[in-house]
Amino acid sequence: MSHRIDPRHPKLRATLLQSAVAVALSLVAADAQEATYSPEFTADNMLKLPEGKIWREWPFVGSLVTPNALNDGEAPFPEHHIVYIDPASWAHFKQTGEFREGTVIAKELTFIRAPDGANEDGSTDEVSGTGYFMGDYSGFEITIKSKAQFPDDPGNWAYFSFGHKPEPYNVTAMKQPYEACSACHEAIAADDFVFTQFYPVLRAAKPE
Fold first, then answer.
1. Domains and CATH numbers, the chain
2. 137-184 pLDDT tens trace
3. pTM for the full predicted model
């Protein structure tokens, strides 16, 4: 004889609620990954900070760290770099191996974790070993490829910094001059002004 469970039973209702929440969260995550981000500008051409810190939901492409302690105290970016690409451009790159018109690459920075007692080289001794670990967020930048918007910039890439400082970041950012960003990317970046030599996710995804 089969036994029918009363849908009003507390345990069944709790299970159904948990399932519904899990589905809703998965849909939210999928929307964040698949949504096409369109940069917004003010009337005076300042880039607006993306709402909801959406870049943290984008595909991660790579990370690096350049601490002051290993650069005579003068590293240009003495932090961890966490780099993301917008989902639509990620899908395009996997298919073509190229950065499409409208590509957005976001770079967020964190301080190096260096509490009292850090080693002379800036490293810390943690449970997994001695090394460089992430601290708090310390800056945010975006680069955009757009021939329509930046026809005179090298590679049609423009660079924007929302500040090298802890959150909250600046709500708008002005386009950086050539000397600040483009010159280095033009001289050293491996692939269309992008440092793919540091981003294994992009290298692995690029079609043969």
1. 1-34 (no CATH), 36-205 (3.50.70.20)
2. 999 999 999 999 999 999 999 999 999 999 999 999 999 999 999 999
3. 0.82
DSSP 142-200: EEEE-TTT-TTSGGGEEEEE--SSSSSPPSEEPBPPTTTTHHHHHHH-SBTTB-GGG-H
Is the Cβ–Cβ distance between 159 and 179 less than 8 Å?
Answer: no
Strand, coil or helix: 31: helix
Cα–Cα dist 171/56, whole Å: 17
Contact 155, 193 (CB under 8 A): yes
Nearest to 52 by CA among 64, 70, 74, 35: 35
C-alpha separations of 178 from 2, 8, 123, 143, 181 in Å: 75, 66, 33, 13, 6
For residue 202, give Cα distances in angstroms to 2, 99, 105, 183, 207: 55, 11, 12, 22, 10
As a 3-state breakdown, the chain gives helix, strand, coil percent values, each rounded to 5, of 30, 25, 45
Spatial CA neighbour of 136 closest among 160, 115, 155: 115
Tokens of 123: 């490293």
